[in-house]
């Protein structure tokens, strides 16, 4: 039997109640990890945990106290923390003219502040262990910019800068920090798009199809495992060649 890539590793995935986050959790479990699925909706986290075989917890990623308690609880109960995936996110799309300050702040707060808190808390534990992998979920929107998503694109671009700066700070502790930029992926979020917009964006992908959450999850497993032991500060695009 082939050895599991993440056997006995302890992993946390935020925003794991549905979509890409749930699939990341499922794939980490498949590869042997013990996974904590965190979501602001505790019931959704519990359902997802039952589905994939992990542990579900409620957590607001914008709260320093809750993020600290999440990491402290995991390390207290399971003894270590090997993988932390900052995946939680929301959208509040509107044109510049119509977007409210509140909707701009909310999106940046969840994506960028949430990821920063996750990196801060996880790296504090991993530095002491002298090992660990942090994976931040950005987006191709942070590379190219999407009209109607100035808040989302700005936050996702910020995650790239956060990733590179943090990677430089903790590399000498054998802690790695990388980012993934998914493109058009079939999720509840993209399912809510007008069909004509989805079709237009899908046609712009060189591979001529949208991606599946499992394809993003596969990239997470690579960055979480020893297969990428000399990879840090990188941005891995999972977008079928779009914007290459």
From TrEMBL:
Which molecular-function annotation in GO is an example for this chain? oxidoreductase activity, acting on the CH-OH group of donors, NAD or NADP as acceptor
Ketoreductase domain location: 9-188
The record, for InterPro entries, names: KR_dom (IPR057326), NAD(P)-bd_dom_sf (IPR036291), Sc_DH/Rdtase_CS (IPR020904), SDR_fam (IPR002347)
Per UniProt, which keywords does this protein have? Oxidoreductase
Reported EC number(s) for this entry are 1.-.-.-
Q: Which GO terms describe its biological process?
A: fatty acid elongation
Q: Which Pfam families match?
A: adh_short_C2
PANTHER family tied to this protein:
3-OXOACYL-[ACYL-CARRIER-PROTEIN] REDUCTASE, CHLOROPLASTIC (PTHR42760:SF40), SHORT-CHAIN DEHYDROGENASES/REDUCTASES FAMILY MEMBER (PTHR42760)
Instruction: Give the protein family.
Output: Belongs to the short-chain dehydrogenases/reductases (SDR) family.
The protein in question is named: 3-oxoacyl-[acyl-carrier-protein] reductase
Please spell out the taxonomic lineage of the organism that makes this protein: Bacteria, Bacillati, Actinomycetota, Actinomycetes, Mycobacteriales
């Amino acid at each position: 039997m082939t050895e599991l890539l993440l056997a006995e590793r302890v992993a946390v995935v935020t925003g794991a109640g549905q979509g890409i986050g749930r699939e990341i959790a499922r794939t980490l479990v498949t590869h042997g990890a013990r996974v904590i699925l965190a979501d602001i909706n505790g019931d959704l986290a519990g359902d997802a945990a039952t589905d994939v075989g992990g542990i579900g917890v409620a957590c607001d990623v914008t709260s320093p106290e809750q993020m600290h308690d999440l990491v402290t609880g995991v390390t207290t109960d399971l003894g270590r923390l090997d993988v932390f995936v900052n995946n939680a996110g929301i959208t509040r799309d509107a044109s510049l003219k119509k977007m409210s300050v509140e909707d701009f702040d909310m999106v940046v707060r969840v994506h960028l502040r949430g990821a920063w808190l996750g990196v801060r808390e996880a790296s504090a534990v991993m530095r002491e262990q002298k090992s660990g992998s942090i994976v931040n979920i950005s987006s191709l929107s942070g590379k190219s910019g999407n009209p109607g998503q100035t808040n989302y694109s700005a936050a996702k671009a910020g995650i790239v800068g956060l990733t590179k700066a943090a990677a430089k700070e903790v590399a000498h502790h054998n802690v790695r920090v990388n980012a993934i930029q998914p493109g058009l992926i079939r999720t509840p979020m993209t399912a809510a798009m007008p069909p004509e917009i989805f079709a237009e964006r899908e046609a712009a992908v060189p591979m001529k199809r949208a991606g599946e959450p499992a394809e993003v999850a596969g990239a997470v497993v690579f960055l979480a495992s020893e297969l990428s032991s000399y990879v840090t500060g990188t941005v891995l695009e999972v977008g079928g060649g779009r914007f290459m």
